[in-house]
Amino acid sequence: MNNQTAVKLGRRLRRLDTMLEQHYSIIWDCCCDHGLLGMSLLERKLAEKVVFVDILSPQMALLEQDLQGRFPRDKFNWQVICQDVKDLQVPQVAPQLFVIAGVGGNKTIQFIESLCAALPNLPFDLLICSVHGNYAVRKALAEHGFGLKREQIVLENNRFYEAIYVSQNSTQPIIATGLTMWDRVNPDHHRYWQKTLAHYRKKAAADPKAFEAIVADYEALLITG
Ligand SMILES: C[S@@+](CC[C@H](N)C(=O)[O-])C[C@H]1O[C@@H](n2cnc3c(N)ncnc32)[C@H](O)[C@@H]1O
């Protein structure tokens, strides 16, 4: 970096950053906004190139300026693309990682589908941290041939997130409720489990056919705290 302080991440983004365990040809920070996570990955030289993508053009102009000041192009390989993630043109290179963090479950699933359509014959990795809808996101990941690498529950500003690192090269099954991320004696995890169950029980009361099986899946976890 160019006479600047190191990239400072909040708890959620820091956890995503430290979950990554390999070097990539390209890392895509999709829906990057301020681009902090991508900057940290650039700083750690975790990829030959980091591509920042977001649909908001004023924000992307600011990010471009920021990157020019902090990560000179003669030392760092980065690109800023102002576009809908669904329309991305993706080069056929491997290994690639797409980070999708900070958007809702439905959008996350749309991005998973469009990326799979863009790379039909080349396995790739995803690091996902949706703001909600993790059960459906995990189902979509399994349907698209992803296996688990790592998963963690993250608590930031009294909100719970699931950080889900997956790969089409992994054969470890993705469980819709999450499995290895739960610490059965952690009171915060107990709180998250109770909150999630309450959410799906309410939905099941209105639409039993759609949600009773999800409630049963979460009940079977039995996180005691
Ligand atoms: C809350 S920010 C997330 C920032 C960062 N990824 C994080 O997790 O802290 C959500 C960002 O998603 C962007 N976004 C929403 N829909 C998008 C789309 N279809 N394509 C690209 N960016 C999108 C928004 O412009 C916004 O900057």
Provide a descriptive summary of the structure in words.
The chain is α/β, with parallel strands linked by helices. The chain has two domains: 11-175, 3-Layer(aba) Sandwich (Rossmann fold); 182-225. The protein is 40% helix and 22% strand. It has seven helices and seven strands, in the order H-E-H-E-H-E-E-H-E-H-E-E-H-H. It has helices at 11-19, 36-43, 57-70, 105-118, 134-143, 187-206, 208-221; strands at 24-30, 47-54, 78-82, 96-101, 125-129, 147-156, 159-167. Strands 3-2-1-4-5-7-6 form a seven-stranded mixed beta sheet, sandwiched between helices. Strand 1 (24-30), helix 2 and strand 2 form a beta-alpha-beta unit. Helix 1 crosses helix 2, helix 4 (105-118) packs parallel to helix 5 (134-143) and helix 6 (187-206) runs antiparallel to helix 7 (208-221). The longest helix is centred in the C-terminal third of the chain and has 20 residues, at 187-206. It is globular, with a radius of gyration of 18 Å. The relative contact order is 0.12. The mean pLDDT is 96. Bound molecules: S-adenosylmethionine (SAM). S-adenosylmethionine binds at residues 13, 31-33, 53-56, 84-86, 101-103, 107. Residues 13, 31-33, 53-56, 84-86, 101-103, 107 line the site of S-adenosylmethionine.
Q: Give the name of the CATH architecture of the largest domain.
A: 3-Layer(aba) Sandwich
- C-alpha Rg (nearest Å): 18 Å
Give the rounded overall mean pLDDT: 96
Give the cofactors and ligands.
S-adenosylmethionine
- Domain count: the total is 2
